[in-house]
Amino acid sequence: MTKLNYTELADLLFKTVEKAGKTILEYYDGSEMNVQLKRDDSPVTDADLASNEIITKALSKTDIPILSEESKIQDFHVRKNWKRYWLIDPLDGTKEFISKNGEFTINIALIEDNIPTLGVVSNPVKNKIYIGGKSLGYSKLFNGDQIKVLKISQKESFDDLMKFKPLRVVASRSHQNSKMASFLVKFSSIDLLRMGSSLKFMSIVDQEADIYPRFSPCMEWDTAASDAILRCLGYQIRSISDSFEVGSQLIYNKENLYNSAFIAY
Predict the structure, then answer these.
(1) Strand-strand pairing, 115-123 and 167-172
(2) What residue ranges of the chain are covered by domains with CATH 3.40.190.80?
(3) pLDDT digits over 224-236, tens only?
(4) What is the dotted CATH code of the domain comprising 158-264?
(5) Is 6-150 a CATH 3.30.540.10 domain?
(6) pLDDT tens-digit readout, 176-215
(7) Which part of the chain is CATH 3.30.540.10?
(8) E-strand spans in the chain?
(9) Half-sphere exposure of residue 139, counting CA atoms within 13 Å on the CB side?
(10) Which of 14, 84, 194, 202 could disulfide-link 173, Cβ–Cβ 3.0 to 4.6 Å?
(11) How far is CA 237 from the centre of its chain?
């Protein structure tokens, strides 16, 4: 594969999500919101589509294939041969956007050999942009005018983490199911935080939560950008079985783009 300049790509991602975020906020602050339902009954707004247009136009200049939630999904027989590609969720947390609670993000990841190596997660409402990945060699948080370099620290083992009292658990605001309830009763003491979008992953980065278990369906573009940032910082997203056994790290560009149940920690 052609050697990439990851610093330049990170700069491109930063500028792209800044522009997309400003456009999304114009719709967010507007008086009317056009909401439609897609085939899977998930909502899509004009803000989703406008963000997607900005991002895909900017990233098309890299000559790297693009896979986006809001564009036509390429057939597997084509994309299975991709060595690298962009994976995009132009507005993650559309339900939160519609309810105007501010808990939505823009997610963009670079996938190489089915592993996320560079990612950006932007929360336009709070003007926060997380960017990083192993290909970049670091992760940063841009919080308004402040820049913080996020550092790798000694992480607890999974078994030790599960003994925390209380265990700080972040979970979806919009997606809840019985499997999550069965998992949570395993612990004698938890602090449960609910929020939308990939901000759940970033709450681990911000050290506001210890784990994020997910048993309801979500797509590869929901996790990839966060996965790149987490891996760079020594955190993990791993599959979790019906019996709550932790398995392997997530793999991307599967024929079926749904993630397995997972736990981030």
Answers:
(1) unpaired
(2) 158-264
(3) 999 999 999 999 9
(4) 3.40.190.80
(5) yes
(6) 789 999 999 999 899 999 999 999 999 999 999 999 999 9
(7) 6-150
(8) 35-37, 43-45, 66-68, 84-92, 105-112, 115-123, 128-133, 138-143, 146-150, 167-172, 190-195, 212-214, 237-240, 246-249, 262-264
(9) 30
(10) 194
(11) 11
